[in-house]
Amino acid sequence: MAAAVIAAVASSLCCIAPLIYLVFGASAASLSGIEQLSWLQVPMLVLSTGLILMGFWRLYFAKKPLCTATLSRTQMVWLYWLTVPVVLAFQLYPFVLPWLLEVFE
To answer: CA 71 → CA 18, 65, 75, 76, 80, distances in Å?
Structure first.
């Protein structure tokens, strides 16, 4: 689940500078080079989606889920469903944010 969150964050790195400008009203010249990472967006989206689906499969369909020695299955299910919205938020905000800005102008 941590890998899915990291991949989702990495997929949104190309769009982080406009979000920081929007949220905090700050500008930083060092963030302007982050747009060069836009080629990583699609592979990281695929990776984070694949990891979330793999986690779903391991939780609900595998005979023995991972980490059963440290966490109970109930705790893993709660952790999974808490991380899915975080991953979706990072995956979708580069696509939803321009639409929201256009609608609320």
So the answer is: 38, 10, 6, 6, 12
Report whether 60 contacts 68 (CB < 8 A). Answer: no
Spell 43-67 as b/e; 16+ CB within 10 A means b.
ebbebbbebbeebeebbeeeeebee
What is the predicted pLDDT for the residue at 20?
Answer: 62
Rounded Cα gap, residues 20 and 9, in angstroms: 14
State both tokens at 14: 């190309």
99 vs 65, higher pLDDT: 99
Question: Which tops the pLDDT comparison, 66 or 99?
Answer: 99
The C-alpha angle 91, 94, 99, rounded to 5 degrees, equals 125
- pLDDT at position 81 is 93
Determine if the pTM surpasses 0.90: no
